[in-house]
# Entry
Amino acid sequence: MALDKFATFTSSAIPLPIENVDTDQIIPARFLKAVERKGFGDNLFRDWRYDKADQPVADFVLNNPRYSGTILIAGKNFGSGSSREHAAWAIYDFGIKVVVSSFYADIFKGNALNNGLLPIQVSEEFLKHIFALIDADPTTEFKVDLENQSFTIVKTNESVSFEINPYKKECLIMGYDDIDYLVNSKEDILAFEKQRG
Amino acid sequence: MEAKTLFDKVWDAHVVKKIEGGPSVLYIDRHFIHEVTSPVAFVGLEKRGLKVFHPELTTATPDHNIPTIEQHLPIKDELSRKQVNTLLSNCEKYNIPLYGLNHKWAGIVHVIGPELGLTLPGMTIVCGDSHTSTHGAFGTIAFGIGTSEVEMVLASQCILQPKPKKMRITVNGELKKGVTAKDIALYIISKISTSGGTGHFVEFAGSAIQSLTMEGRMTLCNMSIECGARGGMIAPDEKTISYVKGREFAPSGEAWDKAEAYWRTLITDKGASFDTEYTYDANDIDPMITYGTNPGMGMGIKASIPDGSDLEGSDKITFEKSLNYMGFTAGEKLEGKPVDYVFVGSCTNGRIEDLRVFANFVKGKQKAESVIAWIVPGSKQVEKQAQEEGLTDILLAAGFKFRQPGCSACLAMNDDKIPAGKYAVSTSNRNFEGRQGPSARTMLASPLVAAAAAITGKITDPRDLM
Ligand code: SF4
# Structure
C-alpha cells in the first residue's frame, strides 16, 4: 500500500520541550483497542491534553492557540517504551509530518519511517535554539527538504542537515513501503530457506 | 577466521540479503502475535490480497486485554472482546496456531514461548511487543516490532532491519543476599539511562549473569528494552540447554543432537569487538526501587532520591515534572512510605521462580490490611505449577489471592487499574505516567521488594525481614 509521497514543505511548529516522551504518553494503552487504523489522532497525548473530566488542559501545547503547524519539536529520547505503532499513527493522524528531536528511541523511529512520518535528529544545541525561537515567536517557520536532507529556519536561513538511510529516503519520497519490497523478494527468501535446509 | 560476537553469529545466519546502502532482509524463525498489535496488520494483508507465508511459524495468544478473573465467561468490555475475537478469527482464517483463553498453554506471550520450547537458542524471534527482548535469555536475537513489521513477517517471514551496534554489559562477582535479576536490570538502567542502549543490541556476560537461572535471565533480557536497546541476549550454556530439553516444541532425537551441537557454538569469540562496553560489580547492587516516571529513575532501596541540584534546562523540567507526578520530594528517602497496591506479575516477573520468591517470603506472615495485592501468574502452566508446589496455599494462608494469567496491571488495558494517585509497588517493567491506570503512581521493584511492601504496607528493605 503506497504511502503519501513526502514533498518539501514549510510550516510553523509545535514545541514540546519534555524529555523521554514515551509511547504510553503519546497514546495511552486504553486507546489501543481498535481493530482498524483510524481516529488515533484524537487521543494523541490524551492524558496531557485532557483532564480527568475530559476537558482540554488549556496550557498543553496542542490546546494552545499560539502553536500550530505540521512539525512537532520534542525533547531528547522521544518515543521510548512500548513498540506500539499506534504512537506513529496518532502523530501522523493528528496532522504532523515531521518530528524534530535530538534523540529517538529505535522502535519509534522505525515505526515513524514505515508510516511516512519523518523523524529528524538535530544536535542538542540546535534543538535548544529552535525551542527559544518558537518561544519568542510561535509563528517561526521551518522548511523541511528531504531530497537535500536539510532543515532550515526560514527567517534566519540557518540550515542543518540530517541523516537518513538512503533506502528509507527513497521509500518516503516515492511513497513505497517495505512490504512491497519484501513481497518482491520472494525468490530470494525461498532460495534462503532452501539453502538452510 | 574473523572473531565474531554471539550477536554476529546469529544475525549473519539470518541475513537473506543486504540492500545496498540500506537495511538487511532478515529471516525470522519465530513470530508471536497478540490481540493488540496484530489486527491492523491483518487488515493490511487483506487489502493487498496476500496470504500468510508461513502460518506455522507464527503463534498467537491473547494476553494484553483479557480479564484476570472469571476467564471462562465472555469478556465484558466490548472493545476488548472485539479485539480478542478478531485475533481468533484471523488465526482461524489464516491457519495460525492459537492458544486462546482457557487453553492449558495460554498466557503472556513472552512467558509461553520459552515454556513451550517455541523459543530456542540461535533463533530470530519477533513480536509486536517491545518486551520480545525476553527471549534473548536463550541466546536468540529477539526484539519488538511495529504493526507494519508484523504485516511484513506475516507476508514474507522477513523484515527489513539495519544491523544495530553491539554492546556488552558484564556483571562480575556474587550477588548479595536479597538481590535478584530485576535489581541487576534496574541498576544497569539507572546507570546508563533509558536511552543508553539505543541503537544497540546488548550481550549480558560475566559471572553474576551466568549464575542466574533461566527465569532470572529472562527478567534481565526483558528489561533490556528499558535502557533503549533493541534487545539483550545471553550465550546459551548448560542451564539453557537443560531448560529447553524435553519441552513441547523443542527438537528431539537426532534433530536435538544436531541443534545442541550448534547451540554450543553460540558464544562470543575471544577478541571479538563491541561498539560499547560496560562492566559492573555485583557487590555494588542493592535491592532496587524506582522513584520517578521512567525505569532509569531507580536507586537502592535505602538510598535517597537525588536532589537534582546539578540539573538544568529541560533535564530539570523533566525531573521536577516526574517527582511532582509521583508526589515525592527531591532528596527524600522512600523507605517507610506507605504503599496502597502491590502487583506481582507480567512478562518481567510473572514466572514460577518469581512466585516462589514471593511465597517463600510471605510464608508464615500476613498481608498488611491496607494493601491491595494482585498476584497474577504469567501463564496457565505457571498457575498450575504454583498450585502443585503448594504456593497457592501459602499465599492464601498469608491473605493473598491468585488471579488468572494475563498482562493485567502491567499496562492496565483490562480492569486491573491502579486508581489515580495511589502508590503501587509493581514487579512489571514500566513506571511511565498513567501506565498502570490514569494518574497511578508506580514504583518498580523485584518480587522480593514487592513481598516486603505487601507485608508491612510500606516501602521496606526485604533484607530487614529475612
Ligand atoms: S506483561 Fe506487560 S510488558 Fe509484558 S507483554 Fe504484557 S503488557 Fe507487555
User: Anything to note?
Assistant: Chain B has a mean pLDDT of 97. Chain B has three domains: 6-161, 165-236+268-284, 289-464. The pocket of iron/sulfur cluster is lined by residues B 63-64, 108, 110, 129, 131, 346-347, 407, 410-411, 428-429 (CB under 6 Å). The longest strand of chain B covers residues 165-172.
